Amino acid sequence: MWDVTDRRVRWSDAASLGIPAAAAAMGSAELAAGAIGRSQAAPLLAVGAAGIDLTPQWLKDFAIRSFGTADKLVLLCGLGLGILLVAVLVGLSARRRPLLGAAGLCGLGVLGAVAAMSRPGAHAQDVIPSVAGAVVGVLVLAWLLRLGARPVRPRAGQDGPDRRRILLAGAGTVAAAGATGAVGRLLSSRHDVGTARQAVRLPAPARPVAEPPAGAAVRVPGMTPFVTPARDFYRVDTALTLPQVSPRDWTLRVHGMVHRPFELSFDELLRRPLLEHDITLACVSNEIGGTLAGNARWLGASLPALLREAGVRSGADQILSRSADGMTVSTPIDVIMDGRDSLLAVGMNGQPLPVAHGFPARMVVPGLYGYVSATKWVVDLKVTRFATDAAYWTKRGYAERGPIKTFSRIDVPQAFKQVRAGRTAIAGTAWAQHRGISAVEIRIDDGPWRQAQLAPVPGIDTWRQWVTDWDATPGSHNLQVRATDGTGALQPQDRLPPFPDGATGWHSIVVTVT
Ligand SMILES: Nc1nc2c(c(=O)[nH]1)N[C@H]1C(S)=C(S)[C@@H](COP(=O)(O)O)O[C@H]1N2
Ligand SMILES: [Mo]
After folding, report:
1. Which of 94, 133, 163, 483 suits 334 as a labelling partner, its CA being 20 to 30 A distant?
2. CB within 8 Å of 116: residues ≥ 6 apart
3. Residue 115's beta-bridge partner residues?
4. What is the rounded distance in angstroms from the CA atom of residue 129 to the CA atom of residue 365?
């Protein structure tokens, strides 16, 4: 017999059936992923990672613009909300249409399995976590439904003891699912390479390099440091979880249009002559005034020397490098080989590369945006042609070649800050890697352009700090900066967005002087 109350949408069903079943599914999927040592196959991460690759460009730009480096957290929260929505729907339909509820859970499982299998480097067993999750979810749903099927006669406005028992069972299930998921994550962390990284002893560079010149960092409170500590270094990549590449298993394959393809182990890499260079990396997504750039001292083997050993065949014009997580980057061979300090880097600021910055090895090529040069977790170099192979971002409309554009930024005072009237310093950072910065000019309101004082630099591959004095008068003022690169070219004034080959425009800020 139908109870009239059964005809209403019962939100408690969502809470007592759908959410616990979905939680059990997610928790057991995490456990299965940890048990088989394939954390990337856990459905949440797999769907998130696939989502990153499928996201249209405008949405990606929007996410980076609005959330910056928190974009991945926002994505995961969005996914969590999506799963919660499915869970609620499963719960609402399950009592009258149990098969529909089960189908919802299976749908999540299929989505997770397809996403896991579509990832670069996927194995057949990567379906296991999603399948296990769906099976457990359906079993838990059936169990909770059985609990609820016992005769219940709640009096109006009052939950019967059975209803309370069901809610309790649901809450217990959610807690158990959380614990299961945590155990899964713990099992996954067995594969973390933090310990292996700490055990790496980097050899000294073949030739010692001088410290950056004294005064490379202008002494103004609040100014950007000249060398960016690794922990503050901007991070941009498509990896939802950091690839864990053990130096023991790492090899670099050099192949394609070469006379002598070869493979290099990490020990062999460390035995090569290592060079050390100060190089500023920058991201093509950096906006005018933005902070997606960092300067570090990189230790690594010469990339041109590696390529000469392999013997690049005529007609080849790009290196398609591939990371352990399937990211591809194409770098023009003529740029790598033109005498600049292109590195297969293993060290950053005197330490092994942090995992977030490409441990155990990455590429660094001064003068090119990261998306065409700075492959982290690099495992494969294919010598090829632009006409044959396209890289990840080029397929998504970004420029094939990505020379870094001249950029200048006011760091001090900060925008919209109150400034005390009187003599004060305006200071900032400018870069035009591999061309160098030859001048920085500042303009206050509609006044004349004035030369700023340039700090010394170790070379043309790093950013350059600048400073100037300002006699600040009360009121609101507009400060504007522009740089000239080492070839004498003035930074372009036209405002262009980062897509498809880097932003242009002069940075300006408004400050209030009191
Ligand atoms: N494997 C891999 N390498 C990558 C990327 C990536 O998504 N995956 N992003 C590139 C981009 S767009 C930039 S700007 C630099 C950023 O390097 P960082 O995170 O060490 O600052 O890495 C490059 N190397
Ligand atoms: Mo980037």
Report:
1. 483
2. 40, 41, 43, 46, 122, 126, 127, 129, 130
3. none
4. 39
pLDDT at residue 2 in the model: 38
| Chain CA centroid to CA 351, Å | 21
Asked if residue 376 lies in contact with residue 361, where contact means CB atoms within 8 angstroms, the answer is: no
Concatenating the DSSP letter of every residue in 59-79 gives HHHHHHHHHGGGHHHHHHHHH
**67 to 61, 82, 125, 488: CA distances (angstroms):** 10, 19, 34, 36
Least confident of 3-17, 49-63, 91-105, 382-396: 3-17
Tokens of 332: 């023009």
pLDDT digits (tens, 9 = 90+) for 47-98: 999 988 888 878 877 777 777 677 888 888 999 999 999 999 999 999 889 9
Report the nearest-CA residue for atom 6 of ligand 1. Answer: 237
Ion ligand 2, residues whose Cβ is below 5 A away: 236, 283, 370-371
Tell me the pLDDT tens digit for each residue of 131-145: 999 999 999 999 998
pLDDT of residue 161: 55
Question: Over the range 312-322, which residues count as b (16 or more CB within 10 Å of their CB) and which as e?
Answer: beeebbbbbbb
* CA–CA dist 497, 293 (Å, integer): 16
Residue 369 Cα: closest atom of ligand 1: 14
| DSSP string of 134-197, one letter each residue | HHHHHHHHHHHHHHHHS---PPTTS--HHHHHHHHHHHHHHHHHHHHHHHHHHHHGGG--HHHH
On whether the CB atoms of residues 292 and 236 are closer than 8 A, the answer is: yes
- Determine if ligand 1 sits within 6 Å of the CB of residue 393: no
pLDDT score for 57:
77
Q: Is 290 in the pocket of ligand 1 (CB under 6 A)?
A: no
Residue type, position 441, single letter: E
Parallel/antiparallel/unpaired status of strands 507-513 and 475-485: antiparallel
Rounded distance between C-alpha atoms, residue 121 and residue 448, angstroms:
57
Report which bound ligand comes closest to the CA of 235: 1
Which of 10-14, 74-78, 217-221 is least confident?
A: 10-14
Asked whether 405 lines ligand 1 (CB < 6 A), one says no
> How much is the average pLDDT of 477-490?
98
397: left (phi over 0), alpha (psi -120 to 50) or beta: left
Q: Is 205 helix (H, G, I), strand (E, B) or coil?
A: coil
Cα–Cα distance measured from residue 442 to residue 451, given in angstroms and rounded to the nearest whole number: 6
Ligand 1 center–CA 343 separation, angstroms: 15
First vs last C-alpha separation in the chain:
78
Q: How far is the CA of 359 from the centre of ligand 1 (A)?
A: 12
